[in-house]
Write a structure and sequence with these properties.
This protein has about 60 residues and is an all-alpha fold. The protein has helices at about 1-15, 20-35, 60-65. The protein contains 3 helices and no strands. It has one domain (about 1-65). The relative contact order is 0.06.
């Protein structure tokens, strides 16, 4: 735990803020998912659903990654 606290202190002294972490997480994880979204109104019989799946229940972490 001490190593983790030292790392956090180091990052804080070098100007890292929570907003930076959130922005980078969004750019790397959320934005790519949003780019591949298929709106509900687009799910018609003629829509190409290649690469999409229907999930029932919660997804496992390994499936999300």
């Amino acid at each position: 735990m001490c190593d983790l606290l030292k790392s956090i202190a180091f990052l804080k002294t070098h100007g890292l803020r929570r907003s930076d972490v959130i922005r980078r997480y969004h750019a790397r994880r959320v934005a790519p998912l949003m780019a591949c979204v298929l709106p509900l109104y687009g799910m018609t019989p003629s829509a190409l659903l290649v690469g999409t799946t229907l999930a029932q229940g919660l997804l496992h972490d390994s499936e999300v990654v």
